[in-house]
Write a structure and sequence with these properties.
Elements: H1 2-32, E1 63-68, E2 75-77, E3 83-86, E4 93-94, E5 105-110, E6 113-118, E7 125-127, E8 130-131, E9 136-137, E10 144-146, E11 149-154
Parallel strand pairs: 3-4
Antiparallel strand pairs: 1-2, 1-11, 3-5, 5-6, 6-9, 7-8, 7-10, 10-11
C-alpha cells in the first residue's frame, strides 16, 4: 500500500511540474510573438491610416485619456511630472494589458509640449502609425499605442 501512495505522489508531482513548465512556455510565447501592427478601427472615426481634417490646437494638454483598451474612458490630469505607462504597480497609468511591458513608455513635459519615449518595451510604442525609437513630440489628439491600449492628449 505504501508503494502505491509513493508512486501516486511521484506522478502527481511530475504532473504539477509539467503544468508549470507548460504555463511558463505559454507566457513566453505570447510575449515573444505578440502582434505589433494590428489595424484598429475607432468608433466614429476613420481607420488609423486615413487622415481626417483635424485642427491641432496649440494649447497645452491638460488630460491624458485612454481611448481604447481595458481602461477605455480613464482620464488622468497632467501636471509637470512625467507619466509612466506600464504594468508595474508604481506606474502612473497601470495597464492590465498582456502586450504592454512592465515599464513600457514615458510621457514627459517639455515646456508646452509632451514627448513620448519607449523604455525598451518588447512590442514597441507607436505614435499614430510610426514606431517610437527616440523621444517624439505628441500632438494633441494623436493616438499613442501601447500594446492594445490607445491613449491621447487632450486640452
Amino acid at each position: 500500500m505504501q508503494g502505491l501512495v509513493l508512486q501516486l505522489t511521484r506522478a502527481g508531482f511530475l504532473l504539477l511540474l509539467w503544468l508549470f513548465i507548460w504555463s511558463v512556455l505559454r507566457i513566453l510565447r505570447t510575449d515573444i510573438y505578440a502582434p505589433t501592427g494590428a489595424v484598429m478601427v475607432r468608433r466614429g472615426l476613420p481607420l488609423r491610416g486615413a487622415r481626417s481634417p483635424r485642427r491641432h490646437n496649440r494649447s497645452a494638454a491638460r488630460y491624458l485619456v485612454v481611448t481604447e483598451g481595458a481602461l477605455a474612458g480613464t482620464r488622468i490630469s497632467l501636471g509637470s511630472q512625467p507619466v509612466l505607462l506600464g504594468r508595474a504597480d508604481d506606474s502612473t497609468l497601470v495597464l492590465t494589458d498582456d502586450y504592454a511591458s512592465t515599464r513600457h513608455a514615458r510621457l514627459s513635459p517639455r515646456g508646452q509640449d509632451w514627448f513620448v519615449e519607449d523604455l525598451g518595451s518588447t512590442n514597441g510604442t507607436y505614435l499614430d502609425r510610426s514606431k517610437v525609437t527616440t523621444a517624439v513630440r505628441v500632438p494633441i489628439g494623436t493616438p499613442v499605442h501601447v500594446g492594445k491600449t490607445v491613449i491621447e492628449l487632450r486640452p
